[in-house]
Amino acid sequence: MKFIKYSKFKGFDVFGVDLGDLMQSLSDSILDSGFHEDYWYTRERRQIDDSLDALREAILRALLEQGIIDPIDVEKMLAENEGKFKGSLLEELINKLIERMVEEGLLDLTAEERQQDAPGEAGPGTGEALPRDIRFKLTERGLDFLGYKTLRDLLGSMGRSSSGRHVTNDLDTGVEAALGARQYEFGDTINLDVNRTLLSAIRREGLGVPLNLEYGDLYVSQQDYQSSCATVVMLDCSHSMILYGEDRFTPAKKVTLALAHLIRTQYPGDTLDIVLFHDDAEILPLAKLATTQVGPYHTNTAEGLKLARRILAGKSKEMKQIVMVTDGKPTAVFVEPDSPSYLTFQRFRGAEGGGRMLYRNSMGNDPFVMAATFKEVQACRKSGIMINTFMLASDHYLVDFVKKMTSMTRGKAYFANPRNLSQFVLMDFMKRRTRRVR
């Protein structure tokens, strides 16, 4: 007779959960850009909820999406605790998952003292400490891991990749010999081609012992020359990036993380910097990218280009490029006090003070704004900086602006959308083809 043995329901195997897949499912929650469906009407950004309760909710959604648990399992675990999440088996298992993520260095938890709101609450002088709020944030390893997952998924879906390095038509000396040898020159890698070196000496002196080598006898092996590249990613964080019913800023953050991982692992001689441009422009550390949100800003493309050009001027790399991700036309520019137009704009706006003034025109195509922007584009061209633009909109006046800008710097223009942005940016970086994808 066959017997069926019943055991106590234990939820799911915490240590059997793939943390990589879990992090990927959590990426949209962790990289929140402030987008919500009512933004068009409210113009209010959704604040990032970095509380432990928000993390638990996001993990629960991810577990349900991946099929690790189902709604029936959730009901069972909550039913055993009178329908309450706190103190249930589900909370215990999710807390263990969070502990795993902290131990692996993907997340970092910090405790903050809760503010005392009303008199009579626990706090200083009452003999009891206020309860602490636990906050979470991504570590550098967690950010790099998200970049790795994005990069792997992209390249995996495209089959074998021919990423290589930055290919040029020049030759260089190196350890890995790939082509013919040439005479040694001062500064070359000492990777002697022994056969050619000895043959040169024998031809000069004849076969004999000892064989005297001279400077002109030295030959070194050659390999493909691999150039170094300095890249500045310019991210548009104006409010239009989450305005028109879709989140365009989160995909931009994901592709930046993937590009950072690609450069760190495959192109160690390259550099990557991030510039955030809005009313102004600022350098954004990679560690702060996850928590960066869009704001009610205009698009000061000229200031972003100026800051990017200043960064690249300090890089001793052979290739310098700007990767600009935007969805809007330039709508703002700074007017300096020494500008002939300064007094005119100051009287028009009724502004006071002697500092530089931000001139804004949300309608776009403002001649003054466009002229200032193209002036910075021309300065990039004179500095040998190529501008590759990834446009997330296709308005006709925007297309004309991008075409003119890319033609001035011999760059490329990609008219992408949030779904294929990663593919366009990463494959452009690796293949270095001069073409425009429509």
Topology:
Blueprint: H1 19-30, H2 39-42, H3 52-65, H4 71-79, H5 89-103, E1 107-113, E2 132-138, H6 140-157, E3 167-173, E4 179-183, H7 194-205, E5 219-226, E6 229-236, H8 249-266, E7 271-277, E8 281-283, H9 301-313, E9 319-326, E10 332-335, H10 342-349, E11 357-360, H11 367-382, E12 386-391, H12 396-409, E13 413-415, H13 421-431
Parallel strand pairs: 6-7, 6-9, 9-12, 12-13
Antiparallel strand pairs: 1-2, 3-5, 4-5, 7-8, 10-11
Helical content stands at 25-40%
Shape: flat
CATH superfamily of the largest domain: von Willebrand factor, type A domain
- What is the count of helical runs? 13
Low-confidence stretches: 120-131, 157-169, 171-178, 432-438
Euclidean distance between termini CA atoms: 69 Å
Q: Number of DSSP strands?
A: 13
SSE pattern? HHHHHEEHEEHEEHEEHEEHEHEHEH
Return the structural class. alpha/beta
Task: Enumerate the strands of the largest sheet in spatial order, edge to edge or round the barrel.
Answer: 8-7-6-9-12-13
Overall pLDDT, averaged? 77
Radius of gyration: 29 Å
Strand percentage: 15-25%
Q: How many discrete domains?
A: 3
What profile does the largest beta sheet have?
A: 6 strands, mixed
Quote the CATH topology of the largest domain.
Rossmann fold
Structure explained in plain terms:
By secondary structure, the chain is of the alpha/beta class. The protein has three domains: 106 residues, no CATH class; 226 residues, 3-Layer(aba) Sandwich (Rossmann fold), CATH 3.40.50; 57 residues, no CATH class. It is 37% helix and 18% strand. It is built from 13 helices and 13 strands. The strands form four sheets. The protein has a six-stranded mixed sheet, with helices on both faces. It has a three-stranded antiparallel sheet with strand order 3-5-4. A two-stranded antiparallel sheet has the order 1-2. Helix 12 links the parallel strand 12 and strand 13. Helix 1 packs across helix 3, helix 1 packs across helix 6 and helix 8 runs parallel beside helix 13. It is flat, with a radius of gyration of 29 Å. The termini are far apart. 31% of the residues are buried. The C terminus is likely disordered.
